[in-house]
Amino acid sequence: MALPIRDQIKYWGMAAAVFLVILWFMGDVLLPFVLGSAIAYFLDPVADRLENLGLSRAMSTAVITVLAILIFVIMALLVFPTLISQAVNLFEIAPDLTKRFTAALTERFPSILDNGSTLRNSLNSLGTAVQERGGELLNTALSSAAGIINVIMLFVIVPVVAVYMLLDWDRMIAHIDSMLPRDHAHVIRNLATDIDKTLASFIRGMGTVCLILGTYYAIALMLVGLQFGLVVGFVAGLVTFIPYLGALIGGALALGLALFQFWGDWVSIGLVGGIFVIGQVIEGNILTPKLVGDSVGLHPVWLILALAVFGTLFGFVGMLVAVPMAAALGVIARFGVEQYQQSLLYRGTEQNISIPDEDTL
Questions:
Q1: What is the rounded distance in angstroms from the CA atom of residue 283 to the CA atom of residue 286?
Q2: CA dist 78 to 73, 81, 82, 88, 144, Å?
Q3: Gap between the Cα atoms of 40 and 37, Å rounded
Q4: Residue 246 exposure: Cα atoms within 13 Å on the Cβ side
């Protein structure tokens, strides 16, 4: 005999509360494990394909690990030093950029930026603040003992967790499946399948899109000659998973830097703008349709809300779990709507009412 609905709600509510409390108090401790699990989830299809080619799970994990180490070593030797150097230089020249920007505005709009005006003072203070805060942030992250230890822990624990999770992923999923309550196992499996499809489409697809676009922006901007092209490309690629935001932030930053560096050279400035226009065309017409698809079901506003809420409540770890939680809540919400539309609460006493199709709403 199944438990009453009231008892089931109570137990599942308690489990959800325990999960949120653990996330609240142990967010920093859980960070390497969350990252490691995310990497394992991302790479599980690759391991499955290698198994289909005849390799064992252990050998598939070993091949993926060796390739990941080689890629990381190449990145550490070629990309990371340049990225850090450009970021430091960008913070250092921020006051000079704001002064040049103020001078350009003063030359063209003298009435707006007269001596002692609020806008002039704000621009001057902005550059100084970026220099001080940016340098302070980098120095703290790179020089403090705690920061070094945390970085070392991330670089050590995350790969270890990812390797073990990837090795045991299928067994872990099978074990979790065997622990599902029998009365609801079928429904939970269907929901989990829908959530996995949404996450696979979004995280794996958008992760690949971010990597491709970030690499494209960085290389193209550096070829044009933009001083901080690698940093701009990294930032633009990093936030591409929020539709249009990556191109908006990266394009604004790149054009702003191009105006200072290439002022008067309108061809170079136009090339910088064209890079982002081409990037958006490629993303919207090729990358996103092919790699992400149209059935993700994560509206940009819902995504931004989830990032804001989970980031505020649980910090950086909350931002990492925001997308999976948003996808899961979206699937559960759609399931709840379907159950409501099939219930007497929606249908009333008339059993022949047809459920409106979503395309007609």
A1: 6
A2: 9, 7, 7, 17, 24
A3: 5
A4: 31
Query: Along the 361 residues of the chain, how does pLDDT read in single tens digits?
Result: 466 767 777 877 888 888 778 777 776 677 788 888 888 888 888 899 999 998 889 999 999 999 988 888 887 776 666 666 766 666 666 666 666 666 665 665 555 555 555 555 565 565 555 555 555 555 554 454 445 556 666 777 888 889 999 999 989 988 888 888 877 788 888 888 888 888 777 777 778 888 888 889 888 888 888 877 788 888 888 777 776 677 788 888 788 778 777 766 788 888 888 888 888 888 878 887 777 665 555 677 777 788 788 878 777 667 777 777 887 888 888 888 888 888 787 887 655 555 555 554 4
Which own/partner pairs from 9-13 qualify as long-range (CB within 8 Å, at least 24 positions apart)? Answer: none
Q: Are 263 and 220 in contact (CB under 8 A)?
A: no
Burial class (CB in 10 A: 0-12, 13-18, 19+), 76: exposed
Residue 245, Cβ density class (10 Å: 0-12 exposed, 13-18 middle, ≥19 buried): middle
